[in-house]
Write a structure and sequence with these properties.
Blueprint lengths: L5 H35 L4 E5 L2 H14 L11 E3 L4 H10 L7 H7 L5 E5 L6 H13 L2 E7 L11 E5 L4 H21 L11
Parallel strand pairs: 1-2, 1-3, 3-4, 4-5
Helix pairs in contact: 1-6, 2-6, 4-5
């Protein structure tokens, strides 16, 4: 096996980010409008994903609920990946494929936005969550890669990162999500608060 120069990783990441900025610009602006409209109208952002994408879902829900760069009141967001009792009960009693859809059904409401992180676009539990969301009037946004997978044709907005690598897709997904959060936060949503002591 040939040793990999770690600096090459950053160079390749930058190249992928540049391709994403070029090819996904309109989609990222559309996704930003979806997120901003949902929050402005009192809706909730529901995040989900598996593995590293679950971590990204949790990360982003926290940015909205706590803060990103601006001290402000919370913006409504929840990760459907964090309640281990809920996830394991549903996986055991029903199916792992239902772990997100069950929460969407119980917590979601018309006007909310389900945000799905799935690098393949084919994760059964993510697909099922989208199916349930659509029946409830919950809008849907997916971040994926490769060819977009099955989810591409199912959601209101799909951002397909131009890479076949899972790690690279997750890195770009997080960068896109931070860019969206930055734009939404800077739009003035939430009431300013002084920094905590």
């Amino acid at each position: 096996m040939t040793a990999i120069d770690p600096v090459t990783h950053l160079t390749e990441l930058a190249e992928t980010a540049a391709r994403a900025a070029t090819t996904l610009g309109a989609g990222i602006r559309e996704a930003t409008a979806l997120v901003q409209g949902t929050l402005a109208n009192g809706g909730t952002l529901l995040f989900c994903g598996n593995g590293g994408s679950a971590a990204d879902a949790q990360h982003m829900a926290t940015e909205y609920m706590v803060r990103y760069r601006r001290n402000r009141t919370p913006l409504r967001a929840i990760a459907l990946t964090t309640d281990t009792s809920n996830l394991t009960a549903c996986g055991n009693d029903f199916s792992f494929d239902e772990i997100f859809s069950r929460q969407v059904e119980g917590l979601g409401r018309a006007g909310d936005l389900l945000i799905v992180h799935t690098t393949s676009g084919n994760s059964p539990n993510c697909l099922r969550a989208v199916e349930v969301a659509r029946t409830m009037g919950v809008r849907t946004l997916a971040l994926t890669a490769k060819d977009g997978g099955k989810i591409r044709a199912m959601v209101d907005c799909c951002l397909v990162v131009p890479t076949d690598r899972t790690d690279r897709a997750q890195e770009i997904h997080l960068a896109i999500q931070h860019a969206i959060c930055d734009a939404v936060e800077s739009s003035g949503l939430g009431t300013d608060r002084p920094a905590s002591a």
